[in-house]
DNA sequence: CACAACACGTTTTTT
DNA sequence: ACGTGTTGTG
């Protein structure tokens, strides 16, 4: 039986899955079946090595990935169980038997596996142990802690800068200060340590804001997303018993998307694995493993402190550090099951231009496929028109294609506009993936604030958010006098609000409203231990008057909000169904704070997907349009002067290309509307790095006949390309195809011209440089001369 | 205390 | 261009 299920794997996958104890780094290329490796490995640990599911910890970065992993493991076990007890494949069994098998698998195996995001897992640990923690300044929290989201954190920092420390908002922009604090936390630095690292005025001030920020969090019995990881790390460092408990518990640790870990997350994993010993000295690998899966080439989140050098350092930290061919602690999954050979070759060649990476190529397992088509558009409207014509043409030509199989990927959200307009015009159904999140909506945050205030009396921020929502006649001045009393007496705001006499003396005419509000919170707080989450939510929605108020407004917008509140109630019900053992409001709130979004509705699977390249990671589509490949847009202008940033943009491009299964279209425009005005645009550096022979284009550098032929069927909407002579060559000394001589690099040919005028840059392929490598040089480079 | 005019910034985003 | 957040007025 066991051998049978391992036969679904290729040799390297099998090597990864069968690895039992010790460290292992799995370099998993795009589309190489890494989720398969992860899930089969967990199954193998349980079935073959009889590991207790309780001893397995699997960490992911998104809830979606965690959910998918859980489902696939459950199915794996259910399939095996079906074959064993019924001698049939799972799908061949009647529905109720399948359900029974699944619930049996859940009860005996998957329920005890810890599979989740770093944040969800740490949240679980903290619900056990946070009361045993005290930070370096003696701050403490209780298990009823609130989790402040990014906007809560933002407004807290802003309040500190303006009201507490009276700093100049211009000099200390709350957003960048908040970013600095978050970065400090992600590196595991306390305010004091941060100050040591930034020994200047700005560093001192930020350290101060950071310290007051932590005071405020503690006052509110709240922590932010960064603390969710950082506090367990600090707790494990200061408390040997707690550390030893979790170290003993999680004997087999798996980490997905390891290239996305930051320093603190790495520290957490290391503490759990080695029980605090240094990683390279740790030797007690009996019945213990750490198994990390990642791909440095898909690291696209350094702007939020992800550090792919952690992945590159795994061999040194935990592994044997031997060369790739001899090592027993690294496996590369390079067979790609997703894309055609043409697409893979393009991706491989592009990423070769990066210097910081682990050598790896994606090996094709499918046919050669069709060439990638690169379209040069006049502007963003023309680009959108090209995309829709191609989609319409392909959809008509192929019976098995429907709109759900197309994706349009762009660098910035603003680019979606032109595509949305045209999709609406042609009546093509589409969905925007990502974008505004459900739990970020005002009405949802309002309701959650009620719930948080009920669970956590110290959560003053939430209390203030809804004390006058809906209107209860509690105005700014009333709130101010209540807050002032709270500060002067040194007691939480809730103590004031819930005390009738205090309210009467402080709130004057508003006293009635304040007391009514306090009564609602109090009443539901008393119900916490005896009543399920949904009942409390229902009670709050009715008695707070929130729903009544929305309905009274009678606008379309209010109706929308009401629908969303209804959705939230549904989410509570769904939570209760999925968490039979913990139907509490506390459980739901943790879940809601850490959830990015509600699940897609299934009908949307038939829509064209529009999303940023970042959102596309982990997804795949038969047909992909990679749009806006223009210098300054993609790569972004913020990365142009930083080689490391350019490499990250290149990885982003690599991610985009490797989303495509069958066909890839790339496009760029000659001019584009940006912040209201038209701006000229030049082709992206990445286009110059893509091999010509793998692409068809509508530009004169390749055969135009090919292009006209392939578009002819699509109708007359597409414009003809301007002849190449119309390049802005009149104000340039150089144009594509010119032979040049460079003092340092020798003879070469110009392959691309970026920008125009004095600040233009040239891409030159020098004959003397190995591997068709190009150099990007400023047009002002004196060492460059023309040769004919 | 509410609404309207105005200034501002604008890569990517999960938890 | 456009949405957000802050200021000013009735």
TrEMBL record:
Catalytic activity of the protein: Couples ATP hydrolysis with the unwinding of duplex DNA by translocating in the 3'-5' direction; ATP + H2O = ADP + phosphate + H(+)
Pfam families for the chain: PcrA_UvrD_tudor, UvrD-helicase, UvrD_C
Presence of the UniProt keyword ATP-binding in the record: yes
Occurrences of domain UvrD-like helicase ATP-binding (ranges): 7-340
Organism, scientific name: Myxacorys almedinensis A
A GO MF label: hydrolase activity
Entry's family note: Belongs to the helicase family. UvrD subfamily.
Gene Ontology CC entries for this record: cytosol; DNA helicase complex
Record EC number: 5.6.2.4
Protein name: ATP-dependent DNA helicase
Entry's Gene Ontology BP terms: DNA replication; recombinational repair; response to radiation
């Amino acid at each position: 039986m066991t051998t049978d299920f391992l036969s679904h794997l290729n040799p390297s996958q099998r090597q990864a899955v069968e690895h039992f104890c010790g460290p292992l780094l799995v370099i998993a290329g795009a589309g190489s079946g890494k989720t398969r490796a992860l899930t089969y490995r967990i199954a193998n640990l349980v079935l073959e090595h009889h590991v207790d599911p309780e001893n397995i910890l699997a960490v992911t970065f998104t809830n979606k990935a965690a959910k998918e992993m859980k489902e696939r493991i459950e199915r794996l076990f259910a399939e095996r169980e079906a074959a064993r007890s019924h001698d049939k494949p799972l799908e061949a069994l009647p529905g109720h038997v399948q359900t029974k098998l699944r619930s049996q698998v859940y009860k005996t195996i998957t329920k005890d596996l810890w599979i989740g995001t770093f944040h969800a897992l740490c949240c679980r640990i903290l619900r056990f142990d946070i009361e045993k923690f005290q930070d370096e300044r003696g701050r403490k929290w209780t298990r009823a802690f609130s989790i402040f989201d990014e906007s809560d954190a933002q407004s807290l920092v802003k309040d500190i800068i303006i009201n507490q420390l009276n700093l100049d908002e211009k000099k200390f922009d709350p957003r960048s200060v908040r970013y600095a604090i978050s970065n400090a936390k992600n590196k595991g630095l306390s305010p004091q340590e941060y100050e040591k690292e930034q020994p200047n005025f700005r560093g001192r001030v930020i350290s101060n804001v950071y310290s007051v920020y932590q005071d405020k969090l503690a006052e509110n019995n709240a922590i932010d997303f960064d603390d969710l990881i950082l506090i367990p790390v600090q707790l494990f460092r200061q408390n040997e018993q707690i550390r030893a408990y979790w170290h003993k518990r999680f004997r087999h640790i798996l980490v997905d998307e390891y290239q996305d870990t930051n320093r603190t997350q790495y520290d957490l994993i290391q503490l759990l694995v080695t029980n605090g010993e240094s990683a390279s000295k740790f030797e007690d690998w009996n019945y213990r493993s750490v198994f990390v899966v990642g791909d440095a080439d898909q690291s696209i989140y350094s702007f939020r402190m992800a550090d792919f050098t952690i992945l590159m350092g795994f061999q040194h930290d935990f592994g044997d550090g031997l060369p790739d061919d001899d090592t027993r602690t690294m496996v590369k999954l390079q067979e790609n099951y997703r894309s055609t050979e043409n697409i893979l070759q393009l991706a491989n060649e592009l990423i070769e231009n990066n210097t910081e990476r682990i050598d790896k190529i994606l090996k094709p397992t499918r046919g050669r496929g069709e060439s990638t088509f690169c379209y040069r558009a006049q502007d963003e409207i023309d680009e959108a028109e090209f995309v829709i014509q191609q989609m319409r043409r392909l959809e008509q030509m192929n019976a098995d294609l429907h709109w759900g199989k197309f994706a349009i990927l762009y660098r910035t959200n603003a680019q979606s506009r032109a595509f949305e307009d045209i999709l609406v015009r042609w009546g093509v159904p589409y969905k925007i993936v990502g974008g505004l999140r459900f739990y970020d909506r005002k009405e949802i945050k309002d309701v959650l604030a009620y719930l948080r205030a009920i669970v956590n009396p110290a959560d003053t921020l939430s209390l203030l958010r809804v004390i006058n929502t809906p209107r209860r006649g509690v105005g700014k001045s009333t709130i101010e006098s209540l807050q002032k009393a709270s500060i002067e007496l040194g007691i939480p705001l809730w103590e004031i609000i819930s005390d009738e006499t205090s309210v009467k003396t402080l709130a004057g005419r508003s006293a009635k409203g304040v007391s009514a509000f306090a009564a609602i919170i109090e009443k539901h707080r008393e119900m916490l231990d005896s009543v399920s989450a949904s009942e409390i939510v229902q009670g709050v929605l009715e008695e707070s008057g929130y729903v009544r108020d929305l309905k009274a407004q009678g606008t379309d917008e209010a109706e929308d909000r009401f629908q969303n509140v209804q959705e939230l109630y549904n989410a509570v019900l769904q939570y209760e169904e999925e968490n039979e053992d913990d139907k509490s409001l506390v459980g739901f709130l943790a879940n809601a704070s850490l959830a990015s979004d509600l699940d897609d509705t299934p009908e949307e699977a038939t829509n064209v997907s529009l999303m940023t390249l970042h959102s596309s990671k982990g997804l795949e589509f038969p047909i992909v349009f990679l749009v806006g490949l223009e210098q300054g847009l993609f790569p972004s202008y913020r990365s142009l002067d930083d080689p490391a940033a350019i490499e990250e943009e290149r990885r982003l491009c690599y991610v985009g290309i490797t989303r495509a299964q069958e066909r890839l279209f790339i496009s760029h425009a000659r001019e584009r509307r940006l912040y209201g005005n038209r701006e000229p645009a030049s082709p992206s550096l990445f286009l110059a790095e893509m091999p010509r022979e793998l692409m068809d284009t509508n530009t004169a550098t390749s055969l135009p006949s090919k292009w006209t032929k392939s578009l002819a069927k699509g109708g007359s909407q597409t414009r003809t390309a301007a002849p190449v002579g119309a390049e802005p060559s009149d104000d340039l000394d150089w144009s594509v195809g010119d032979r040049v001589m460079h003092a340092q690099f020798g003879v070469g040919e110009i392959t691309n011209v970026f920008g125009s005028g004095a600040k233009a840059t040239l891409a030159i392929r020098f004959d003397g440089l190995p591997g068709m490598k190009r150099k990007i040089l400023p047009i002002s480079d004196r060492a460059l001369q023309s040769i004919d």
